[in-house]
Amino acid sequence: AQSVAQPEDQVNVAEGNPLTVKCTYSVSGNPYLFWYVQYPNRGLQFLLKYITGDNLVKGSYGFEAEFNKSQTSFHLKKPSALVSDSALYFCAVRDKWDQAGTALIFGKGTTLSVSS
Amino acid sequence: KAGVTQTPRYLIKTRGQQVTLSCSPISGHRSVSWYQQTPGQGLQFLFEYFSETQRNKGNFPGRFSGRQFSNSRSEMNVSTLELGDSALYLCASSLEVPSGANVLTFGAGSRLTVL
Q1: Hey, is the C-beta of B26 within 8 angstroms of any chain A C-beta?
Q2: What is the pLDDT of residues B39-66, one digit of tens each?
């Protein structure tokens, strides 16, 4: 069965410092991986996705993510955090070879808190 | 263009009642998916519709049902509400069947409180 783990419930960083939000996944085949962000009282907003190819994926708002097949990880990163990046971040996966797997499988989410 | 619109945004019901939530997808999108978000269980897939057909269903009891209309608008219904049904219900739309790398666009959600 597919699964996603976000090992940290909360990540705290100071503004201007680099940030990393961790994600590991488990699928039977090859994965499609996604990061979404949720601000209070808002739905999920798409940040970026990994399909194939370059292991470093660039997305919205200066975020990027690094796909590591051997470690089955897809960590979200940003070189310099902003206070406005404070939100709830979700990693999600679909199995590339599971034709019935239209659902996104989400991690539990990681709250990012950026202090000024 | 307008995003995914969910109504109502907030509602309060009592145990045993039923509720209907509505979702209007982005214009031109033919697929609608529903997810339940709770603090304990996180985001869980409910069901997915494409061209008025339910194509996939998550592991929820039969009290949870949905449908999609010819204009792609979707409704979900929860009957005989339980306290544990209190959650944020999120609707997402996509142009085609949400497989593979297709990106879902989410609405702001309907927050249901069951008393």
Answers
A1: no
A2: 989 999 999 999 999 988 899 999 999 9
Query: Which tokens sit at A64?
Result: 């990027």
Q: What is the DSSP letter of A79?
A: S
CA-to-CA distance for A59 and A49, rounded, in angstroms?
8
Which of residues B50 and A101 earns the better pLDDT score? B50
Buried/exposed code over A22-37 (b: 16+ C-beta within 10 A; e: otherwise): bbbbebeeebbbbbbb
Residues in chain B within 8 Å Cβ distance of A102: 33, 48, 55-56, 97-99
Residues B22, B17: Cα–Cα separation, whole Å: 17
| Number of alpha helices (DSSP H) and beta strands (DSSP E) in chain B | 0, 11
Q: Which residue type sits at A53?
A: G
The predicted pLDDT at position A54 comes to 85
